[in-house]
Amino acid sequence: MTITYEYEGALYVNLTNRCNCNCEFCLRHGKKEGSIYTEDSLWLEREPTRQEALDSFLSRDVCSYREIVFCGYGEPTYRIDDILWLVDELKRTVPGLPPVRINTNGHANLLHGRDVCPDLKGRIDVLSISLNGSTPEEYLAVTQPRDGILAWKSMLDFTREAVKYVPTVMMTVVDKEKSPEEIQRCRELCESLGAHLRVRAYIPD
């Protein structure tokens, strides 16, 4: 079971395969064995316990990585309480912990029915939030969230709140079939929320 894995000098953490979206560009599609990041499968036979995840961290030279990234074949904030616990334990036991990032769809508050953003302060250094479109229509078409338009609104509200507590908040779009005009509209939306835009290259599965 792959809990932590290395990619481009960072240590990635795979805590869950649960997700409330079905993004058209998602690497989960067609990836039954292995992934572009590791020869091992990121499909979990079961979710690791927080202690198993901590043990996986501590089996590595954590400080040798440029950052820690909570990201796998699922939406990591399903396990936001476990992420926060892990970060607290790592900060307590690992001097000089690298920056911590969460790659998320921005639906944590929707998933948990509460505002989790204040809990990120002092724990999470970077948030990368999937934007995927400058309008609700484009977002729903690309992301296909379980909760429909509510997911769009929740993602925007989450971003607007997160910038108050997290030093670096970026929103991402994948450059698949995106015109320069659409990219610019996404950038303007990000900036209106206090975040900045990162354009990701499309990786075919």
Overview of this structure, please?
The chain has a seven-stranded mixed beta sheet with strand order 1-2-3-4-5-6-7. It contains seven helices and seven strands. It has helices at 50-58, 80-93, 108-112, 117-120, 136-143, 149-162, 180-193; strands spanning 4-7, 10-13, 68-70, 100-104, 126-130, 168-174, 196-200. Strand 2 (10-13), helix 1 and strand 3 form a beta-alpha-beta unit. Helix 1 (50-58) runs parallel beside helix 2. The model has no long low-confidence stretch (mean pLDDT 90). Helices cover 33% and strands 16% of the residues. It is an alpha/beta fold and 205 residues long.
Helix content: 25-40%
The run of helices and strands is EEHEHEHHEHHEHE
What coarse outline follows from CA principal-axis ratios?
Answer: globular
- Rg estimate, integer Å: 16 Å
Low-confidence stretches: none
- Report strand %: 15-25%
Structural class: alpha/beta
End-to-end C-alpha gap: 21 Å
Mean pLDDT across the residues is: 90
Strand line-up across the major sheet = 1-2-3-4-5-6-7
Number of strands: 7
